[in-house]
Every structure is written in C-alpha cells, then in structure tokens.
From TrEMBL:
It is found in: Golgi apparatus membrane. Residues 1-291 form the Glycosyltransferase family 18 catalytic domain. GO terms for molecular function: alpha-1,6-mannosylglycoprotein 6-beta-N-acetylglucosaminyltransferase activity. Keywords: Glycoprotein, Glycosyltransferase, Golgi apparatus, Membrane, Signal-anchor, Transferase, Transmembrane, Transmembrane helix. Pathway: Protein modification; protein glycosylation. This is alpha-1,6-mannosyl-glycoprotein 6-beta-N-acetylglucosaminyltransferase. GO terms for biological process: protein N-linked glycosylation. It is a single-pass type II membrane protein. It holds the Pfam family Glyco_transf_18. It comes from Megalops atlanticus. It catalyses: N(4)-{beta-D-GlcNAc-(1->2)-[beta-D-GlcNAc-(1->4)]-alpha-D-Man-(1->3)-[beta-D-GlcNAc-(1->2)-alpha-D-Man-(1->6)]-beta-D-Man-(1->4)-beta-D-GlcNAc-(1->4)-beta-D-GlcNAc}-L-asparaginyl-[protein] + UDP-N-acetyl-alpha-D-glucosamine = N(4)-{beta-D-GlcNAc-(1->2)-[beta-D-GlcNAc-(1->4)]-alpha-D-Man-(1->3)-[beta-D-GlcNAc-(1->2)-[beta-D-GlcNAc-(1->6)]-alpha-D-Man-(1->6)]-beta-D-Man-(1->4)-beta-D-GlcNAc-(1->4)-beta-D-GlcNAc}-L-asparaginyl-[protein] + UDP + H(+).
Length: 306
C-alpha cells in the first residue's frame, strides 16, 4: 500500500516526513476529497481528538483506523487535558466514530500491539466498504435536530423546582418503577410527568459500579447519559426506590453526586445543579445515572423526541 500524507511544509525547508510517504502538503478541500476517494485506509495517530477529518474520510469511502487509549486519556494522565475543568475520559482519538459508527468503517485497536495492528490492516485490505455518512451529519439530520431543539425547549421560563413541595402526598410510593424486562428504573406511567425535554418517558435510572462514570454505565446498557435528567433523580425518592441503605443523606457540591457509598452507607445529593456531571467518577461511590435511549443515526435525540 502506498502511504500518502498532507503535512504542511515551507518551500525552503524539506517536509519532516519519511521518504516513503508521498506528501501532498496542505491541499484545498476539493483536492483533499479527491485524494480520500482514491484511498483505502485513513490512519489516525492519536491527535487531534474528535476532528472532522476521520468523518470526511469515512464519507469518501475510507476505513478509519485509530488508536485505542489504555488507560483512557483524561486530566489525570494526559498533558492536553491537564488543568482543564473536566472529568471526561477519552477512550480513543475519535470516540464518536468508535461508538456510533464502528466496523466495518471504523477499527479501533491498540497501536502498541503489533500483532493486533497487523491483523487490522490485513482485514482492511480484504474489506470493501461504501462511503458512509451518519444521518446526523447530513443536512436533513441537522435540520431535524435543530427543529426538535427549538420546538420542545423553552429557554424563557425557569425550570420549576423538583421534587414539588407536596411530593409525598402525590407520590406515596415514589415516581419510579422497574421497567419491563430490565433492572433499570423508569418514570411510573401512572404518575404525571413534569414538563421536560427530553421527555421523562425516555429516562432509565441505573446505578454505576464504584469508580465508574455515568457515561460508561449508560453505554454498557446501550444507552447514553442525559444531563437534563439529573434534576429528576437527585432526591431521596430515587435512593429509596433503589433500596439504598443510607445512614444519612447530605447535600454537597460534588461532581459525582447524586451517589452513595455501600461500605460507609453514606448517600449524597447534589447541592449545585451546575455540577451535574455524566463523566465524574470516584472509587468510593456508586453513582445514580440518568440514562436514555437514542435514535440510530441521531444520538442527540431519544426515540420519543420527535
């Protein structure tokens, strides 16, 4: 296979790429598209994170081969994220492509494992794919998403407090029930749902493992974490329905709350709504995670969002 690159270089200075790479320098968009249409494989070297180039390559018929990060990159172990106010963990160069496109268009492997890398390249050489563009990246998909955002959200009216003051009378057994064929909790169909978008019919409340973020917990259930739902599960009713043993319930400013400690029987609710976080985790706590389903090809929207 020929290796091509688009590395910028100045005329008076030779490009800093190996001699076996056919370097085209910076290309206009149209010429880059033409080059991608001739190519078979587009390789990511780990940076930049979540850039548009892999999506362009996939849309032009390339297979994207990218590195898997062990451990995931975060502010705890990587210079790029260090000092940034985020608990997010990045599992590969392009997590969206890894999770929502996947094989055969995207292959995510350990670049430090030469056998795994070699096997992936050989598989790519045997594989034929058609150009692929996820629906949410098409013009129609974008307009559908914007329409849903505009039609269903009211930014002029503040969210009413939750739970309401008379909740104990309205919900004698709480607003959550176990969903059919599942261990997750959902909003009880006989309980009037407060105004919400996404609608509370999409809510699936589950509990993470210790040291696991809600992003990971929801993904393992085939769902996505929905930050807008945190305010509906940040209450003692949710802890009670999950049968969590709490010796006390404290409200604190902590990005992993709502959560509980099994060993110490400590339960914590979030005091500052701006700190609700899907990506936070702590080895001492199991988190309450507000997950939801999603539409295939339109991850930003739940199945009942249209």
């Amino acid at each position: 296979m020929e290796v091509h690159g688009t590395v910028y270089y100045e005329a008076q200075r030779p490009p800093e790429v190996p001699a076996f790479v056919k370097n085209h320098g910076l290309l206009p968009q149209q010429e880059l598209q033409q080059l991608l249409r001739k190519a078979k494989l587009f390789i990511g070297f780990g940076f930049p994170y979540e850039g548009p180039a892999p999506l362009e390559a996939i849309a032009n018929g390339c297979i994207f081969l990218q590195p898997k990060f062990h451990p995931p990159h975060s502010s705890l172990n990587h210079e790029f994220f260090r000092g940034k106010p985020t608990s997010r963990e990045v599992s590969s160069q392009h997590p969206y492509a890894e999770q929502y496109i996947g094989r055969p268009h995207v292959m995510t492997v350990d670049f430090n494992n030469s056998q795994e890398f070699d096997a992936a390249v050989r598989e790519i050489m045997r594989t034929k794919v058609e150009p692929y563009l996820p629906y949410e990246y098409t013009c129609e998909g974008m307009l559908e998403r914007v329409h849903a955002y505009i039609q269903h959200q009211d930014f002029c009216a503040p969210d009413p407090p939750f739970p309401p003051a008379n909740a104990s009378k309205t919900w004698p057994s709480g607003p959550f029930v176990i969903l059919p064929n599942s261990t997750n909790l959902g909003w009880a169909p006989n309980v009037t749902a407060p105004p919400s978008w996404p609608p509370l019919s999409a809510l699936q409340l589950l509990v993470s493992e210790e040291g696991q973020s809600c992003v990971e917990a929801c993904q393992r259930g085939g769902l996505v974490c929905e930050p807008a739902f945190f305010r509906f599960i940040n209450n003692k009713e949710a802890l009670s329905r999950l049968e969590v043993q709490c010796e006390g319930i404290e409200a604190e400013m902590n990005h992993v709350f709502p959560a509980f400690s099994v060993v110490r029987r400590e339960c914590g609710l979030q005091k500052e709504p701006l700190l609700f976080s899907c990506s936070g985790f702590n080895t001492k706590y199991r988190r309450l995670c507000p997950c939801r389903d999603f539409r295939r090809g339109q991850v930003a929207l739940c199945r009942d969002c249209l």
